[in-house]
Amino acid sequence: MVEFSGFYKLPMEERIRRIAEHARLSDSEVSLLRGSGALSLESVDRMVENAVGAVHLPLGLGLNFIINGKEYVVPMALEEPSVVAAASHGAKLCLPEGFTASADEPIMTGQIQLVGLKDARGAISSVLAHRDELEKTAKKLLQSMESRGGGFRGISAKQFRTPRGAMAVFYFDVDVRDSMGANTLNTFLEGIAPRVQEYAGEGKVRLRILSNLATKRMARAKAVWKKEVIGPEAVEAVLDAYELACADVYRAATHNKGIMNGIDALALATGNDWRAVEAGAHAYASLKGYTSLTRYGKDSSGSLVGEIELPMALATVGGSIGSNPIAKISLKILNAASARELSMVAACVGLANNFAALRALCVEGIQKGHMELQARNLAMLAGASPTEADEVALQLTKEGAYKLGRAKEILKTIRSKKN
Ligand code: HMG
Questions:
Q1: Does 239 lie in the same domain as 164?
Q2: Fewest beta carbons less than 10 Å away: which of 116, 279, 332, 416?
Q3: Other C-beta atoms within 10 Å of 244: how many?
Q4: Could you tell me the residue range of the domain that residue 407 belongs to?
Q5: Which residue, among 244, 266, 232, 240, has the nearest Cα to 351 in the 3D structure?
Q6: Residue 55 has what pLDDT?
Q7: Do 313 and 257 fall into the same domain?
Q8: Any atom of ligand 1 within 6 Å of the Cβ of 282
Q9: Alpha-carbon distance 401 to 414, whole Å?
């Protein structure tokens, strides 16, 4: 395993040098990291409407991740202090075994809605009676995905009674390989919808869109945190915290937010649609009444076993990945060969963040680690230079007073002593 212990204590230049060496980054990639990956105005203008600039986020590295025996350095883009440290801490505490993880084939499901039906069940039967023709048309429409080994995987249907009458919904499953799949699915659904309308013999097609509840594209991870490493009290404390997330939806929302801290950060760093991942995760958490996305228990030796399972529609190609140079560098740093591998890493990061947050919440309280890391931020806000910021942050931490006003006073004292 690459020695990254104490990485966060190194000066920024040395950190960049170490990761450049580890991920074999080119000089131009290193320059992009140094320039904080500033997107050109031409790029942002291509990416969104009414563009006038770009917002940048810090890129940090989640360390200590051993997953199915392979080491990963996890790029994480976010504004919140302590999330990267927590992920690295959670991952470190389950070493040397690390995580085991798996992910389904990248199958996304799209929906075609048929409204204005007198007989929804009859319309469904008529459409499904043309299953073979639909499959043929689907394969033609999905030719390029078929040629990559993906493509059409199946069709099913459901009827709904709604205040606006009976509706039929047809679910098309498509293997989207290493893409997220939204464009592929939506283009395909618009292409095949006229056939559905024709075979139904009545009604009108309305929505033709993928579902973000990607239950056929699940990622799973598991880790054991040894009682001897984290202590028996931490095992009991995490179990108590977990049970509250199962029992109380107010707690479950925050518990799952902590999981998504790391997953979103990885999705953002790799140019993925984190909103789609969020939507899928929370919808999945609410399938049987909103609850925890993780599960915890004890093994026969009394150690803590943590597991996570959630939909994970992540891509390594397509979308904004191509137009975002930092996303490409992030993928190079991660060194995941496929979207499935990326999804497995995301599940592990979510589990690591959840475990670290629960442990910290129960053992030393979340504010200690969080606010210690926030202290430097406060110092910079108070106007400190990077060298002054360390001194201000240290004093704030000693006093446990994380206030901007106090940071300004400390800075004033430091400067007056120097003059
Ligand atoms: P610590 O015990 O002081 O850490 O914890 P340590 O000094 O023993 O270091 C252990 C490892 O943590 C290090 O290994 C690093 O990998 C990492 P080493 O490099 O020494 O071999 N680490 C760091 N990495 C980068 N920068 C750092 C740093 N410090 C340690 N400065 C720590 C300190 C913050 C990790 C711990 O207190 C922790 O895990 N806290 C949890 C923080 C957290 O979860 N924050 C999320 C934001 S709060 C939130 O939004 C979610 C929440 O509401 C969710 C919920 O309620 O469930 C909490």
A1: no
A2: 416
A3: 14
A4: 369-418
A5: 266
A6: 87
A7: yes
A8: no
A9: 17
- Residue 235: which CATH number? 3.90.770.10
Give the number of domains in the chain: 3
Based on the domain organization, do 231 and 333 belong to the same domain?
A: yes
Tokens representing 356? Answer: 């670290």
The pLDDT tens digits of the residues spanning 155-189 come to 999 999 999 999 999 999 999 999 999 999 999 99
**CB 376 near ligand 1, within 6 Å:** no
How sure is the predictor about 2, in pLDDT bands with cuts at 50, 70 and 90? Answer: low
Please tell me if the CB atom of residue 9 comes closer than 6 angstroms to any atom of ligand 1.
no
Helix (H) or strand (E) holding 80: none
Report the predicted TM-score, pTM, of the whole model to 2 decimal places.
0.93
Query: Ligand 1 center to residue 365 CA distance, Å?
Result: 11
Is-contact 4 73, C-beta < 8 A? yes
- Looking at the structure, do residues 323 and 345 belong to the same domain, yes or no? yes
Among protein residues, the one whose CA lies closest to atom 20 of ligand 1 = 6
Mean pLDDT in the chain? 94
Q: Check 130, 257, 298, 332 and give the catalytic one.
A: 257
Q: Residue 151: beta bridge partners?
A: 175
> Are both 57 and 84 inside the same structural domain?
yes
Per-residue pLDDT of 195-227, as tens digits, reads 999 999 999 999 999 999 999 999 999 999 999
Residues shown for the chain: 419
Token representation of residue 399: 């006093």
**Domain boundary residue, one of 210, 237, 253:** 210
Atom of ligand 1 nearest to the CA of 89: 12
Are the CB atoms for 346 and 313 separated by under 8 Å?
no
Residue 255 lies in a domain: yes
1 within some domain: no
The answer on pLDDT for 371 being more than 90 is no
Task: Examine residue 285 and state whether it is found in any structural domain, yes or no.
Answer: yes
- 88 and 67 belong to one structural domain: yes
Q: Compute the chain's Rg from CA coordinates.
A: 25
Residues 334 and 234 reside in one and the same domain: yes
Left, alpha or beta for 160 (phi > 0: left; psi -120 to 50: alpha)?
beta
The protein residue whose alpha carbon is closest to atom 58 in ligand 1 is 357
Question: Does residue 4 have a pLDDT over 80?
Answer: yes
Q: Which of 365, 384, 406 is the last residue of a domain?
A: 365
